[in-house]
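Structure ticket #2291
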Amino acid sequence: MTLACIIIDDEQPARDELAYLLSAHGDVRVAGEADCVSGAVKAISELEPDFIFLDIQMRGGNGFDVLSGIEGMTRPPLVVFITAYDEYAVKAFDTHAVDYVMKPFSPERLDRSLDRVREMTSLKKDVQIRDALNHLVQQSNTAKKVPVAYKGRILLLDPDQIVFCQYRDKTILVHTRKSTHALHGIHTMDQLEQHLGAGRFFRNHRSTIVNFDQIKEFSPWFHGKYHIKMKDSRATELVVTRDRVRQFKKLLGI
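Resolution: structure written out below.
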């Protein structure tokens, strides 16, 4: 039995590398490729692959936008996430995806992922796959509340209220447009990044996570860094570190 797949990634070298590694597997056929959300939804609808390799971050949207676009398919594909960045975010979804594979691709890791695809394909029922796909979409669309300390009580913030979060003096501070609160019950920035999930939050620095929708303006800065200004009442200025600039620009679509 030959399994047809589509590779969805906005970087040609990444698609080429994955296609090359897949060529070593006689029972896997690359039926198509896509480099954007709309192209991916069209290719999946037309080609009806058995499974897809789906990048999380893409220009003009993300992998979860693709899942939303194919939510109503009669015969949905299995999903294998591929990503260079969002390991913690992807772990929040991997119970309903077949697998996730980190870039750069390892042949051994890809082999294990394909074994899972083969196993799931032999057992799968279209209804079960649709249920899993629907759950992925619901998770991506449902942001978790963020607990913070407030006047001796615990206040639950909607993620949309958050401008940025910052680790300072052994405390994670959550900044809204007009106030600042100490985070409650989440103790590390990695845990907070996982809690917020894949979406509009971006780790611009090891000690800072910003809400992408709350960035007012940005500009290139010294030594390959970027300077960003937030929309809070203080117009807080933050830095995108050099190692995170590539992902920042990718989210902007530039």
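Closing remark: The helical segments are 12-22, 37-47, 63-69, 87-91, 107-123, 126-141, 189-196, 245-252.
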